[in-house]
Design brief:
five-stranded antiparallel beta sheet; alpha+beta; 21% helix; SH3 type barrels; elongated; SH3 domain-containing protein; 174 residues; SH3-like_bac-type
Amino acid sequence: MFFLLVTTLAVILIGLSVYGTGNLRTENQPSETEQAASQESGIATDLLPDLSKAPESNGADGAPPADLVQAAAQTPERVQKFPGPELRPSPEYAGETPDQAAPPADAEGPILYITGSRVNFRSGPSTGDRVIGALNGGAAVEALGPNDGDWVHIRDMDGRIGYMSGQFLSPDAP
């Protein structure tokens, strides 16, 4: 095991010495005169930009170079890729507005309105009973019995009869 470790390290060191580019630390070190000047002034030279290299493109007036491309020219204009036609109602519903709050035509009991966004109504007065359907918020229903209990016996606009939780019913139209 030890022999394998030593052999691996030797191969890595030989590879670095043959294919390496030299000591990168010595290439980026400031000269002795720069180090002396920075020690006198108390400024770290590695944090300052190299001002000895002047920008090649700025003229005496400080204008940007002629070949500089402005950011606005590089940014493409936003275009909707797949514009579609304007939305229109289908011909059979043109000029009509849906009226969900209309009470049943032959209502004899008080009219109540659904307050939830979509509420199930069931065959019996409990959540264990079968779901008959669901009604959207604002739909009008007829109360067939007392409407002050936990469950209210109702009939919807399609004539289906069932029970709905009283917490989702209100006598006030939306």
